[in-house]
Amino acid sequence: MPVMEQERRKILKKRFIVGGVSVGTLLSVGYLILTLTGRSLSGGVAPPDPMGIRCVNVFLILAACVLQGSILGRVAGFLTRRKG
Q1: Residue 39 binned pLDDT confidence (cut-offs 50, 70, 90)
Q2: What distance in Å separates the CA atoms of residue 10 and residue 18, rounded to the nearest whole number?
Q3: How confident is the model over 26-37, as pLDDT tens digits?
Q4: Global pTM?
């Protein structure tokens, strides 16, 4: 496998991970805004979550988005390898 192709695939995967981090950050901020204002996704009133649960939920949202970005980066790398 040529070095240029490996570098291109590495850059592609990195972009997907950065995209996952940015989406995870936006979702986490949205979650925090909803929980701090006492609202739910359906628009109803929800009791606020304890601080520990908020931290765990933010971590899980970020981890899931980064994992999804990593998986999508691998799939994109696999698809570009198959074309060539």
Answers
A1: confident
A2: 12
A3: 999 999 998 888
A4: 0.79
Taking each helix axis as running N to C, give the angle between helix 3-37 and helix 51-83, from 0 to 180 degrees, rounded to the nearest 10.
150
Kindly list the domain boundaries of the chain, sorted by start residue: 16-83
Eight-class DSSP state of 47? P
Q: For the chain, what percentages of helix, strand and coil (3-state, to nearest 5) are there?
A: 80, 0, 15
φ, ψ at 77 (rounded to 5°)? -65, -40
CB of 32 closer than 8 Å to CB of 58: yes
DSSP 33-60: HHHHHTB-TTSSB-PPPPHHHHHHHHHH
Q: Is the dihedral of CA 62, 79, 77, 80 positive or negative?
A: negative
For the residues 13-18, what does the mean pLDDT come to? 88
